């Protein structure tokens, strides 16, 4: 099974430890992982800003690097959703997987290396949850499930909780976070308050962009709560 | 016109009021959740409603003609209006024949969309809005901020003050029951005086030529039953094929809107009573234009329940007036560009694309996807802010050239580490209320190159 690890641009530059954890975790779970060098971005920042029509160069670059793999796996729900919904190449669209989805549905893992004796609050990112269907959604009248929860249950010593509004958006939203700064920050502050109310040490999610936004607010506030990408915990020995 | 983000920032500046607005609407959403989850067939009902509306849009022409024929047979006078102006002229001409200077109107978002009140005011005719929330905002010369709860941006203290000024209630009295009673007495007088009543329409049944008006206050009934002339104004898309279909829509509407099992009044109007005149004005006003857009046509399935408002994390924190449209919220943001793409270019961007709106929608409109699609349309015709356009074009080049990307990344991380004030300043909206991420010394790909060599 040939797996290409897709490392979104901002993870490559600002959160390399998330990419390292993804790589190590997949390797520990027996995958033959390749990192197509020279990879950049999925194209989402432009497309969600209304500029999908200038994305040909970015799309072609992605296609060139990521053709020929059985699976393209990435630690970011929203980037993966963008590729799945909007990349012009059908083979790319059908072989991209968000990493939790890949672990649960493809690898069907029954154990993970991670030990993490802490209480964490789960942040369900909208694009992962509602877009990719990583868990059931509070609006719908359908059976309950959570792929992230399934994975966290495998981590030794960990307790996970959901905030009162179980799947409310954190307010990041791509360029929304600066063009609608006031609303974006207010949404983030409210999200953090709900995590504080359930007394967690970490906020954990599968989308680094949400976590980056929440972390910016947590740090400004001087909060003790830290952020972690779920792969860091699953891989945490 | 001021942009959504500017008005929203002003709204949020009053943190306590924003929290109250947010939690009040969330409470309505929670009631909707409870009511919808009590029905095991909820998701099937949504699917059925969606299919009925799809059928309706596919056959709109025939259904409208069928409705017209049946309504005429029932003794109703049917008028057709191509746009808001024609709608207002038609309504005015009916009123002018009666020679009245005042009339009552129950809630109708269509008449808000057409600015009927302002039009009639210019002709010397006063419209008294009889929905309690609408009467409150009318006193304050404001627009409704929510299509189901028009005065939801106001607290009881605000209403007490408004009623003190306009109805002479004691200053400082903010008791909801007392204030409601004052409004009731005031409106009763208006009902008794009015010879003409305007109502909206929730559903118009092609099969029978009847229409259904849903209210919780009974104000549509009170107006229509006391007046000599009843004018019902409706957008073309309010048609449903059969009376039986109401069994689907009435169940969905109230549960989605407020978590009620059914609206207090679901009144059927089929024929004028003896001596009464009944008119229906069927209004296009851009609807057929939207119908012709394959990607956006299904926005016309909307039954105006406002569930998407109540669930929207952006709407709850920015208030309805920030949308500068009669219909605010997520659904308003996909309807508004059809009216005027330039003036409403900000609205499809007033969303994080979280998708909650599409999940609560009782007729399964893919609202979040249409927000995304409108963004593409808006930038293609050049209505994106110039700075954003330049930035995006730059990024598209950057991401197509890996060396430039890695080089730019190194510069960016170096700046954050060594001269952070270049990023941490007032010009950077991220930094206003958030810290910038910490810059690692090497990117993942730089690290991986070295790992490979080991």
Automatic annotation (TrEMBL), chain A:
A GO-annotated cellular component: cytosol
Molecular function in Gene Ontology: oxidoreductase activity
Segments forming domain Cysteine-rich: 3-84, 121-215
Coiled coil: none
Signal sequence extent: none
Protein's name according to its UniProt entry: (Fe-S)-binding protein
UniProt source species: Sandaracinomonas limnophila
TrEMBL record, chain B:
Span of domain 4Fe-4S ferredoxin-type: 292-322
Any GO BP: lactate metabolic process
InterPro entries membership: 4Fe4S_Fe-S-bd, 4Fe4S_Fe_S_CS, FTHF_cligase-like_sf, Helical_ferredxn, LUD_dom, LutB/LldF, LutB_C, NagB/RpiA_transferase-like
Family annotation (Pfam families): Fer4_8, LUD_dom, LutB_C
Record keywords: 4Fe-4S, Electron transport, Iron, Iron-sulfur, Metal-binding, Repeat, Transport
SUPFAM superfamilies on file: 4Fe-4S ferredoxins, NagB/RpiA/CoA transferase-like
Molecular function, one GO term: 4 iron, 4 sulfur cluster binding
Name this polypeptide is given: Lactate utilization protein
